[in-house]
Every structure is written in structure tokens, then in C-alpha cells.
Amino acid sequence: MLHIDMDAFYASLEVARHPELRGKPVVIGTGPRSVVSAASYEARRYGINSAMPSARARQLCPTAVFLPVDMAYYCGVSRAIMHDVFHAVTDRVEQVSVDEGYMDVSGALLRWGSPSAIGAWIRREVESRFHVTCSVGIAANKLVAKIASTNAKPNGMLLIPKARSAEFVQMMPLRSIPGIGPSLERHLTAWGVTSVADLARLDEAQLTQATGSPAGAHHLWMASHGLDDRTVTPTHVEKSIGSEETLLQDTTSDKIACRQLRLSCDDVACSLRARGFLARTVTVKLRFTDLSYRTRSRTLDRPVDAASALYPVCVELLHAMLGMPTDAGTTALPRPVRLVGVSVSSLSDTASTAVQPSLDDVLEETDSADESTTSHRLRTAEAALDAVRSKYGDKAASFGI
């Protein structure tokens, strides 16, 4: 098994397309109420980490370069790496996030000779083609491979022989085991367990007493002995795609809320087209000043992948959720909104999904000289903007409301 983890992926990609940023502290995440999505290693030296409030990051390093998240760009490069590099070795690839994945290379060893040769080739190809680095962990199972790649960071490779899996894992702190968070760590520490080596000295009955969960105890016992029976699962079924944004200030402005809905629809539609999906169900999410939230969904008559089709539905859902008339216009929202988001689900492959034209489309097509429809022209225009955004960033061009 190989676990490949990109090094400071978002920040590294920004440096790749803006070489003048090389060597500078780069932070992904802008706005006084946003959080840090990623930080370059230069920024991490100042104590900046993911999920930290961006305002705090600015206090720690006022000279850092702060950039907005460009998820369409990051996902596009991620797909290219998975397809062009990982799948060139084997089809046994499991992508677990935009910047990491597992590979079962047992069937590729006859051609490649050794897993180390595969890992070295992947690191070279990723760096030469995409100008970012990655770290590779090689082991007999997923657990040990992931811990190995973490310890190889940044830009390294670590192979753990199967016979030394338990020894390697038992050198690690408790938090290196997936599933052990701050709460469980405190609980185990109260039992005198402060390292994976301590964990390995307990049997499952003792671990059940300590955790109160037989299933959790079994997982910890397996992990502490370097064992993991999970297999690489190549098929990853995507269930939904979403985009949401915390506003700079809480607002009761219908205009501001609708503007953010449009931006989120653009992001979602762009992701749908890039991934080759159509969506049938649309959901609007609102979070209020007391941090409570509400959602409302609608299943469409036919699947779509265009913001021009999603946005009118989202506006109707927004107004219906707040008990406002459909044609609210500039009416103030009845309560302040902190976050606005859109997600789509009931996804299907574009290539294999039949889309029945609406009656309006049929009538318009009949009356049109070139047999085109407004919805088709808008969808084509959005697809053309995808190319602009992929080259110049997701904020480079957009439709007005």
C-alpha cells in the first residue's frame, strides 16, 4: 500500500502559478471572519495552521500573503494528478480527499520491481508536471502507510517493512492513531496510557473498560499492533457538491444574500461540469447570528449543471424558507443571516443521463432560426467561462445577477 499526501497543497499550487511567491509565507483564506484553509511551510513557522481564524493568522504574521480559496483550480489539478500519475501505475487508487489518496500496487510490482520505485516515480512526476511536492508512505496496510507519509513530510518517502509495522507504530504518540482526538486522548491518559506503546500493552478487555466501546477497543488494539484490514476501494461515489460562504457582516439585505447565492451557484455549477455530473436536487442553507441554521431543498424536473438554472430555484427556496413573497426584490430579510450556501445532490453522470427538454424549450427551439434555446446558450456561455477561470482564477469572470 502507498499513501500519497500532497505537501501544503493549496498554498503550493498558488506558488506554482505565482512563482514570485516562492519562499514567502502564503496563507489561503481571506476575510476577517474566514479561517485558514492552508498555509505554506514558511507560514507555519509563525504558528499558522489550518482552521485557525484568518484574523489570528494576520496577527501572527502581518507580512504573509493572504489569498482566497480557488477550489475549482485545486480540484482540477487534483484530478489531473490522480488520472495522469496515480492511474498510470494501477487502477487500484482510492482518493480520500483533494490532496491525498491510497494505492494498492501489489499488482504493479512485476512491471515496476518495487514499491519504492513506484513511490520515487510518483514524487518526480508530480513535481515535474505540476510543480508541487508530495510525501509517500509505503507499508503493508493503510494505517501504517498513512502514518509513514505523515512522518516523511515534507517532500519525503518512508517505507516500513511488514515485519516492523508494530514496532514503527509503537514509536508514535497517541494522536497519530486515527480516531484518537483530544477527548479520547485525555481519557486514555487518565488510565496511564500516554503513547501507542502503552496502548499496545493493554488487551481488548482492558481497552473496552477504558473506552466503553468494544468496537472502539478492537480498533485501538489493531492499530497499536500495526494491523489494519481495510482494502483500497477504487470506487468513490460522490453524493453531493456544495459551496457556502460566511458573510463579512451579518445582513438582512435580500440583495446581498442573493448575490452570495449566485456566487455559490456559479461554484457548484462549475464543479458539476468539471466532474461530469448533473444534479436533480438543490438545497439552500442559511446560518443565523445565533449559529442556528435552516435548509430547504427542491427536486427539479430535470437534471442540470448550469448556474442559470440553479439560481432562480435557490432564490425561491431562500424566500420560502424565511416566509417572504417570491418577488421579494429588495425587501429586508426578517432576521440577520451570517452564512449562505448552496448544495446539489442526486448526482448522475452527464454522459449517460438523458435530459428531457421542457415544453418551453421545445416551443422556443421551434421558433428559433438556429433551433437553439436560451437555457442552452446560457449553459454554453458558462462552460466557456470555465476555461477563463481555470487559467486566471475562479474570480476572473462571472455573470451578473
TrEMBL record:
Active site per UniProt: 100
Manner of cofactor binding, per the entry note: Binds 2 magnesium ions per subunit.
Catalytic activity: DNA(n) + a 2'-deoxyribonucleoside 5'-triphosphate = DNA(n+1) + diphosphate
Site, as annotated: Substrate discrimination: 10
Superkingdom per UniProt: Bacteria
Recorded GO CC terms: cytosol
Predominant location category: cytoplasm
Group of enzyme by EC: transferase
EC number annotated for this UniProt entry: 2.7.7.7
Region (Disordered) location: 356-375
Positions that bind Mg(2+): 5, 99
A Gene Ontology molecular function term of the record: damaged DNA binding
Co-factor requirement: Mg(2+)
Subcellular location: Cytoplasm
Region forming the signal peptide: none
UniProt keyword annotation of Nucleotidyltransferase present: yes
Annotated UmuC domain residues: 1-181
A Pfam family annotated for this UniProt entry: HHH_5
Similarity comment: Belongs to the DNA polymerase type-Y family.
Xref: HAMAP family: DNApol_IV
Subunit composition and interactions: Monomer.
Record-given protein name: DNA polymerase IV
Gene it is expressed from: dinB
